[in-house]
Amino acid sequence: MAAKVSIVIVCMNRTDNLYPCLSTLHEHTKTEHETFVVAYLFDKEALAKAREDFPWVTFIESDQIRGFSENNNLALRQVTTPYTFVLNDDTEIHGDTIDRLIEDMEKLPSDAAIVSPKLLNADLSLQLCGRPVYPAYKYALQQFHLYKEPIDNEPAGNNGALFRSWNITGAAFLIKTEIFRELGWFDQRYFFTPEDLALSTLAVHKGYSLWVDPRAEVVHKWRTTASRIMGATRPAAVRGSIIFFSEWRHPGERNFLSGVNYFLLGGIVLIAETAKRLKASIKYLITRKDSDRLKRDTFRHITRSIFTTKTPKEIFTKYYLELKKGK
Known about the structure:
By secondary structure, the chain is an alpha/beta fold. It contains 11 helices and 10 strands. It has helices at about 15-30, 45-55, 70-75, 95-105, 135-145, 175-180, 195-205, 230-245, 255-285, 290-305, 310-325, and strands at about 5-10, 35-40, 55-60, 85-90, 90, 110-120, 125-130, 165, 170-175, 210-220. Strands 1, 2, 3, 4, 5, 6, 7, 8, 9 and 10 form a 10-stranded mixed sheet that branches. Helix 8 packs antiparallel against helix 11 (about 310-325). The model has no long low-confidence stretch (mean pLDDT about 95).
């Protein structure tokens, strides 16, 4: 029987994440499926063992520096199934999540493009259930801790039914492959952030609808893996976010107005990140802890990256290579 859904996972040489992800995925997914794992900067021995341990997985080697978008797109361009399920490697599935999401999609209106599950933390507390509209001014407020995106967007009295959403998280979502292809897959201008917001915004802009099924659950253990290279990921993410939000009303359109928006929003973010940098620098002078030094350096990298001509990928590459050299 032909596969109905392709599961795409990017893993950055973290077999401690990948093994439980693949094991729970294979155990709980009954729908005919194929699985692609983009093995990003993998040790050769680790990749060989993974191929031996998971013979049903198609591994795609990615030996160059690439971001979330580029790595996913390596596999996405090989997908021919009606549905695609994008999944982070630091996740586990303990129920019929993918089967349920496919059933949902086949019941929804024809304009439905994406169905997302509810995300849980490792302790099974709620991490995210739907995402509301997220305009540029809320991003600006967030820099000064004046706005926090709600983790639960399920309408009151919904009782676990499907509900309409406006944004997705890239950690786990099901999308119609033909629509994904029409949207151009993930936007490769970005590097780890905010590819998911960019995809959501473009889909809605094109007239498609996004949905959430709170009965479908995925455990996302992101807090255990997110900080290892934040000195490289965070400045690239901030630069990408400002690019995205400067084009928020007209995704992908770069013109005079988006340039003005970038200058204004970039100035606001620079003020916020400079304050964080000063605070982190003072704290490091007092504690001399490596963790505080990492925070100080991260904020320094961010402030240097806001008004630059470098792309998010170029920013990440610069600081990632520095981290590898121990600078």
